[in-house]
Amino acid sequence: xxxxxxxxxxxxxxxxxxxxxxxxxxxxxxxxxxxxxxxxxxxxxxxxxxxxxxxxxxxxxxxxxxxxxxxxxxxxxxxxxxxxxxxxxxxxxxxxxxxxxxxxxxxxxxxxxxxxxxxxxxxxxxxxxxxxxxxxxxxxxxxxxxxxxxxxxxxxxxxxxxxxxxxxxxxxxxxxxxxxxxxxxxxxxxxxxxxxxxxxxxxxxxxxxxxxxxxxxxxxxxxxxxxxxxxxxxxxxxxxxxxxxxxxxxxxxxxxxxxxxxxxxxxxxxxxxxxxxxxxxxxxxxxxxxxxxxxxxxxxxxxxxxxxxxxxxxxxxxxxxxxxxxxxxxxxxxxxxxxxxxxxxxxxxxxxxxxxxxxxxxxxxxxxxxxxxxxxxxxxxxxxxxxxxxxxxxxxxxxxxxxxxxxxxxxxxxxxxxxxx
Length: 421
Hints:
Elements: H1 10-16, H2 21-26, E1 30-32, E2 37-40, E3 43-46, H3 59-72, H4 76-79, H5 138-146, H6 156-159, H7 163-175, H8 192-204, H9 208-219, H10 229-233, H11 235-241, H12 247-263, H13 284-291, H14 295-304, H15 322-331, H16 336-343, H17 347-354, H18 357-360, H19 370-381, E4 383-384, H20 393-400, H21 404-412, E5 419-420
Parallel strand pairs: 4-5
Antiparallel strand pairs: 1-2, 2-3
């Protein structure tokens, strides 16, 4: 018997008993020790979710078997039958009668094993409806539908997962109803049936009920808690989305959690987290380099134009709207250093130019910041021309033996055309 209840030597027994060996084998579990799983009717369960350490039963199913045996005029012990799914621990309620499965004697409390009978305890007490306790059969009905024992029960959020992952997902979603914690709370076996029921209800109304649950977490978050996904969602983020939860669970939860985080300003829209594909963009540090300003100054400029995405946090890169960046680049005058680099002159050469009477005479009247004005005026007259075949103005002057101050005056007066890349 111990071998048969674990799927070993089932066929020889069925053949000797005159039963269809294929049918008996299909209802018999196959233990796969290497992966610590059990295969039953083409579905996979965790090894810990299936056990024959004790003999479970539905009290009302036992009563029905006894009544049927008496009707047929045979001994109830010959007719009463243990069902294959009674050993699945996550099926804790009979889907037909809505009562909890039990493995204890109602009279003495002794745990029943496969060494004893199905109908009577070793203390002499008879098993039956005296041990019946009501329970919610929803989880049992879903699991048994996946095992093809009952008509299909559709839960789209779970149906695409392996059964082993669907059960674990129900447990994790059910525990999500608890108060915020940075790590997942340890749940004793006695709490798992309640977790599975609550998790199934969330899955059946996915994602609306889960969004409402996330709303509650965000509203209850203390004001002095740090920003970010972990501070907002705790272990739902750290354990499910990026932790060791089944991949199928993470794939279900992460998109909804990310959408909620963006909508509530917890992370930026284009922040590269939870599988998001960040569009081609530029960050604030790169913009600061382009306009020759400090990061702090650039950030203030971006904030003034509502360019900082909601949910952006210090120390976390965020993406910027490229069109807004282009507008900012066009509105900011280049610094003197950028202008000198564009003209190809150094600081000393620029100083000599602005003290040259020929150049000063070509600048607009009233100019005080001569160096900046000169560089700006020259660049303003330069025509955009992308390419690598351009040479700097000072180099061209040296090659042509033309003084640089004269060339600048010619540019300012519109007599010499220059280009910029």
